[in-house]
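hey so u asked for the seq, here:
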Amino acid sequence: MKVSNRISQITAGGHDGWDVFYRARRMVSAGHTVTELTIGEHDTRTDISILRAMDHSARNGHTGYAMVPGTDQLRDMVAARTEAQTGVPTTRDNVLITPGGQSALFAAHMALCDPGDVGLYIDPYYATYPGTIRGVGAHARPVQAQAKHSFQPRAEDIEAAADGAVSLLINSPNNPTGVVYSHETLEAIAGACKRRDLWLISDEVYDTQVWEGEHISPRALSDMAERTLVVGSMSKSHAMTGSRCGWVIGPEEVIAHLINLATHTTYGVPGFIQDAACFALNAGPELEAGIAAPFRRRRALAMEILSKQNTITLVPAQGAMYLMLDIRATGLSGEDFANALLDNHAIAVMPGESFGRAAAGHIRVAMTVEDARFSQALQTLCDFAASQTKHSAAE
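ran it, structure tokens below
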């Protein structure tokens, strides 16, 4: 007996990019102290007021089946928030509530890609992107955004990869690089999508974490609303990662089909979680700014530390909760550097190679421990990089 090719080939027969993270977690389980700068998990948990709202909803009976598309109240609130941010008319009929952003990514590709189609995605990429595309039976094809262009994708590279493609997945503010796509970049991406008749899937889960520039949703660009699906969630904006509450925003016809998909797969999101999401969204931008504040602060700390050394180069850290560091001067790959840093200093970071070929020779640092510990770990990382550079030069 065998399982389907679709499920067995999600990682294309290779590893899933999380080896250093798993090794660090094994060390922690064995009793070692490790400074984990790996995954995008807030070091502060969901605000107690949101949890109280969740508890109140559950205790008052909203524990049965919720409406599969999402409650009217949450869909209306997500629609209103989106319209206020983008200026694009949006109603509940443009919104499907999903069990987190990852579910929304999968649903979006299910809606657009038939088996054998090509789904494009930008490299560097969040680790699940190619597997999500393969999981719907499509072929995952990367489009490299190059370090020399500050990891801003170029239209010519998208078009060069577009033969047989039906969709393109982008992410701004970007995980892993921390780059925020400029208006010029997004207009170029939109132009490539229109010329090559591509659907655009825009992962915007970090839209509240912008340190430089501005977040622009490509759905707001001319003639893009009818060919764009936007993925969002409560995870990063409201520190609700474990609550699994996200959404897809798109044309009404696509959302109607996605509701059919949800009926046959997830069957919706628990009502008490949706009520908590409504409470959180109703708290307004003040709560969102409070959730984002530690990362803004740690970015400033990092820029000060990095300014005092000349081994590591910081990729423009414009948004999200990560730093992408170019460590090629050490002579090590991102994977070798990350493993050596973990072995020698019990500091865990993600190798750039976990996020694609374009990020080789880089590491991703999550700004997800308290300020003093973060600063100490980053200084140790810089000192380690300098020692490796000297060692490499001596050879």
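The mean pLDDT is 96. The first strand starts at residue 35 and ends at 37.
lmk if thats what u needed
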